Amino acid sequence: MVILRKRVADLTELALNRFLARVRRAAGLRGTVNVLVTSSAEMKSLNRRFRGKDKPTDVLSFPAESDGPKQFAGEIAISAEIAAQNARSLGHSAAKEVKILVLHGVLHLRGYDHECDNGEMARREELMRAKLRLPSGLIGRSDLSRASTAEARKRGRRKAQE
Predict the structure, then answer these.
(1) Is 156 part of a structural domain of the chain?
(2) How much is the pLDDT for 69?
């Protein structure tokens, strides 16, 4: 089930439900997934409540309890506002950005964790992005961001030494 509490340009609940079904099949995720597209204020509240971080975030995944019903895989919450900001800065639509976030969330529900899996989730996300015709994913972006930040620091040190 998809709930668009916050509107995203060119994205309907029906279209996101269809995309979610494709992603679940491609990821091999059994069970239903609920997706909430909401405000950054609500994401901040969820992030504070469940992760202890008092700031908004783009996507949160909540896997189903292991002793819960097997037909339910979990829930994903997405900030429409952060998705729109990221989309503008990356040069694609907010609808595509929400789809990227859904893919990322589904992989988390499937059990992947990019913080400790030695790149396994990143590789899987990259393959699925290509299959689903999506632009760069979250993990790849953060790797590129870290690399460009490190390169900028090196350039700054070289200039300072000159």
Answers:
(1) no
(2) 62
Q: What is the pTM of this model?
A: 0.81
- The answer on pLDDT for 132 being more than 80 is yes
Provide the residue range defining the domain that includes 117: 2-135
What does pLDDT average to over the chain?
84
For residue 33, count other CB atoms closer than 10 A to its CB: 24
* pLDDT at position 16 over 60: yes
Of 38, 26, 36, the closest CA to residue 61 belongs to: 36
Token pair in block for residue 153: 């620091």
Q: According to the 3-state scheme, what is the secondary structure of the chain?
A: CEEECCCCCCCCHHHHHHHHHHHHHHHCCCCEEEEEEECHHHHHHHHHHHHCCCCCCCEEEEECCCCCCCCEEEEEEEEHHHHHHHHHHHCCCHHHHHHHHHHHHHHHHCCCCCCCCCCHHHHHHHHHHHHHCCCCCHHHHHHHHHHHHHHHHHHHHHHHHC
154 lies in some domain: no
Does the pLDDT of residue 148 top 50, yes or no?
no
66 found inside a domain: yes
- How far apart CA 116 and CA 90 sit, in angstroms, is 26
Is 155 among the domain residues? no
Number of domains in the chain: 1
CATH of the domain at 69: 3.40.390.30
